[in-house]
Amino acid sequence: MRYWITAVLSCLALVVGGCSLISPAAKSVEQGDCVKQDGADFATVECSSAEAKYVVLKKLSGSEYTCKDVAGVTYTYYEDKQVCLGDKGADPLQASNVAHEGDCLTDSSSPPVRKLPCGDPQSIYKVLAREDGGLASLACDSVPGTEVTYTWELKQIGDGKKIPKLGPDLIFCLAHKEVDTARALENAKVGDCLRDTNIKPNLETTDCGGADAKYRVLRVVATSGQCDNVQGATSSFTFTPGGLAIPRVFCVARLR
């Protein structure tokens, strides 16, 4: 009995002295907290710290499935709920993941891609369509005027539950904001006329009676070599619409 009492008193002394044998639970993050990446996970830090690279934008409720529609989100991970993180200091309203048809984006080849007013000189492309996931190589095939396909992915990290994905989270079908998609080169057919432009792909359809009509389309084929057998063809133009792997070759005759 004497030894049992001694053991209990020793354990009590450890607890009172702050030496509990049970580790406290890790602090759960809340909206507005700042975190740093810590290996395959994230750790909370003071927002004033130089280590604070991300901010908690939202913790999803039980009925919400994914963070991808949370403005400005870049990372997601699980603790008790799915946590949506964004880059610290970034403006969520300029995030590309909240862009929709008619919105404009900066150059998709120069990350980070931002959503800006179409009148802003830094905006380059207009969103023609937005698709929620799928195959990027096919998503924009049926969207006339698509010049560029831009994909956006939500990064998942940590050992918690991960959402299975097939391809990117979002796919944007884009055209230069100043292009009239009704005149897009990909819409050209035999008999149509083309004019030069200073915006890629540098050609668009035009009225054959207009002074700017420079070429007439004689045939649309798969390879430029096929134009050698097209009577009257003086040159060819190869164009690959955004989202397609197969190019279109226009065999043309120069008008002037």
Structure commentary:
With 256 residues, the chain is mainly β. It has two domains: 30-175, no CATH class; 182-254, no CATH class. Helix content is 7%, strand content 32%. It has two helices and 16 strands. It has helices spanning 2-16, 136-139, and strands at 34-38, 41-45, 54-59, 73-78, 82-87, 104-105, 115-116, 125-132, 148-152, 155-156, 170-176, 193-196, 203-206, 215-221, 235-239, 248-254. A six-stranded mixed sheet has the order 2-1-3-5-4-10, with no helix packed on it. The chain has a five-stranded antiparallel sheet with strand order 7-6-8-11-9. The protein has a five-stranded antiparallel sheet with strand order 13-12-14-16-15, with no helix packed on it. A hairpin with a 3-residue loop joins β4 (73-78) and β5. The longest helix has 15 residues, at 2-16. The radius of gyration is 29 Å and the shape is elongated. It starts with a helix and ends with a strand. Mean pLDDT is 83; it is low at 1-26.
Strand tally is 16
The strand order across the widest sheet is 2-1-3-5-4-10
Distance between the termini: 112 Å
Shape: elongated
The main sheet comes to:
6 strands, mixed
Strand content: 25-35%
Question: What's the pLDDT, averaged over the residues?
Answer: 83
SSE run? HEEEEEEEEHEEEEEEEE
Structural class category: mainly beta
Evaluate the radius of gyration.
29 Å
**How many distinct folded domains?**
2
Count of discrete alpha- or pi-helical segments spanning 4 or more residues: 2
Helix amount: under 10%
Uncertain segments are 1-26
